[in-house]
Amino acid sequence: MSTRLLTATGVEKAFGDRHVLRGCDLTVDLGERVGLVGPNGSGKSTFLRILADIDGRDHGQVERPASAAYLSQHPVLPGATVADALDDAVEWHRRLLREYEAATVEGNLQESAHLHDQLDRVGWEVEHRVAAMADRLSCPPRDAPLDRLSGGEKRRIALARALLGAPDLILLDEPTNHLDAETIEWLQDWLCGWRGGLILVTHDRYLLEAVATRITEVEDGCCVHYQGSYADYLLERAERQARLKSAHDRHLALLSREAEWASRSPAARTTKQKARLQRLDALREVRPVKPQEAFTLSLQTGAARGGPLLELHDGRLKFGERTILHDTQLVVAAGDRIGIVGPNGAGKTTLLRIIQGVQELDRGQRLCAPRLQPAVLDQHRTGLDLDRTVFEAAGNGNSHVFVGERPVHVASLLDRFHFPRESFDQPASTLSGGERARLLMARLMLQGANLLLLDEPTNDL
Questions:
Q1: CA–CA gap between residue 436 and residue 443 (Å, rounded)
Q2: Is the model's pLDDT at 210 over the cut of 90?
Q3: Less Cβ crowding at N or C end of the chain, within 10 Å?
Q4: pLDDT over 70 at 443, yes or no
Q5: Does residue 298 fall inside a structural domain?
Q6: Same domain assignment for residues 30 and 40
Q7: What CA–CA distance (Å, rounded) separates 225 from 218?
Q8: Are 78 and 84 in contact (CB under 8 A)?
Q9: 182 and 314 together in one domain
Q10: What is the pLDDT of residues 121-154, one digit of tens each?
């Protein structure tokens, strides 16, 4: 018989008038790796936080007898340095070693044997585990102050903490954000070898296909479960959507016929006619199927002709003893699509900041055309006033904006980016990571840029 690690029944959660979860059910057994999927804003992160006992729920039950580790999209780390945060994650391991040593000294053979078995399972070398995990995830040096780290560095430390904790159940929210390809491949192998339970929220299709043993989709506030891999889920979901659409089309046809009959029928009703009218009322109450709409992004571009937009010549930059750029040459012209790649910490984001003009070179030249109009989407999604409502943030306080030379109502702009009308008045701070990215992309449309600088644009999408 499998060991049940988590049971969630009828979980509901609302933010004001917006009902995010309408009765979600989920179970996880030992050895299961569940991929939790759904559109941005569907409630995946909210559900995960409830399952991790971070946030409360309005209704429903969550039973989690197992120990759990949770990776948040916006982690808060304990201590003052990297060493403090990592060492805190393995304090349980050090305590186990101390208890084993005490039981051995006291001659408590039964307790000593029990603790020996536990240590055989988790390992005896605590410091080696910590150092190896920090190295694999490219964590900053142990003496680095936490308050000086970037969001990506903090997330890598938080991921290391979750994996070092050796819990029964791991809950990961977008673990591949800020990881390079090599580290993602290592994480994939690690998760595939994990023998506990796993709930994984990620938009990385390849990671889902490799890791997940089944898929749960958060759809319209409820959970729909699919057995098998991510590829199996895509096939089964397409078949399910086709069945639902066919049933909905039949429902609409029946509703149309019944409404036509009701309009022709006399006011006096027989018992049979009254029952038919009651059925018509019931048909009108049925919620329609919501097909997923394709998302398109159209940007208004500024002037783009007449030579290079930007050039770097002999660019050099160092941070302390660390060389970021050495005699770097770069030319960016209209029509170029340049991918910047490299391992974590190589300086990719710094190069974008130099191109943008917010980071100066130690030596060399940055030359830009007078017509240069850059637009930036940074990896930390800054640029939003989170105290404003979604509507206010999209229009910068205005009810109308200009897309090119055409005035557009902010509501139409938000509709185009798939924001439901009930979200317009909610604070931008309540948006998910993917929704914030969509809102920033909506604002990019308004800038008339001829140079887009996108730093990890697919994070959370």
A1: 11
A2: yes
A3: N
A4: yes
A5: no
A6: yes
A7: 9
A8: yes
A9: no
A10: 777 888 889 999 999 998 999 999 998 887 778 8
| φ/ψ bin of 324: left (φ > 0), alpha (ψ from -120 to 50), beta (otherwise) | alpha
Number of domains in the chain: 4
Q: Is 388 exposed, middle or buried (0-12, 13-18, 19+ CB in 10 A)?
A: middle
Q: What sign has the CA pseudo-torsion 123, 126, 127, 133?
A: positive
Return the structure tokens found at 202: 């990620």
pLDDT at 292 over 60: no
How large is the average pLDDT for residues 343-370? Answer: 89
- Element containing residue 262 per DSSP (H, E): helix 230-264
Q: Which two tokens stand for residue 446?
A: 């308004």
Strand order of the β-sheet with 33-37 is 68-71, 169-173, 197-201, 33-37, 214-219, 222-227
Categorise residue 109: left if φ over 0, alpha if ψ from -120 to 50, beta otherwise. Answer: alpha
Beta carbons within 8 Å of 343's beta carbon, 6+ residues apart? 138, 180, 182
Domain CATH number, residue 119: 3.40.50.300
Which residue(s) pair with 4 in the sheet? 29
pLDDT band at 7 (very low <50, low <70, confident <90, very high): very high
pTM of the predicted protein model: 0.73
Domain extent, residue 249, equals: 240-285
CB contact at 8 A, 46 and 55: yes
Q: Are 218 and 42 in contact (CB under 8 A)?
A: yes
At residue 71, φ and ψ (nearest 5 deg) are -105, 115
Residue 311: predicted pLDDT: 93
Residue 296 has pLDDT above 70, yes or no: no
Residue 418 maps to a domain: yes
Residue 448 makes CB contacts below 8 A (sequence gap 6+) with 300, 301, 302, 373, 404
Residue 225, H or E segment? strand 222-227
Q: Is the pLDDT of residue 358 over 70?
A: yes
Indicate whether 166 pLDDT > 70. yes
Q: Is the pLDDT of residue 294 over 80?
A: no
How many CB atoms are located within 10 Å of the residue 337 CB? 5
Q: Indicate if 73 and 183 belong to the same structural domain.
A: yes
**Same domain as 403, residue 366:** no
Query: What is the spatial distance between Cα 362 and Cα 115, in angstroms, rounded to a whole number?
Result: 56
What tokens does 191 get?
A: 């998760």
Residue 456 region, left (φ>0) first, then alpha (ψ -120 to 50), else beta? left
Q: Read out DSSP for 19-37?
A: EEEEEEEEEEETT-EEEEE
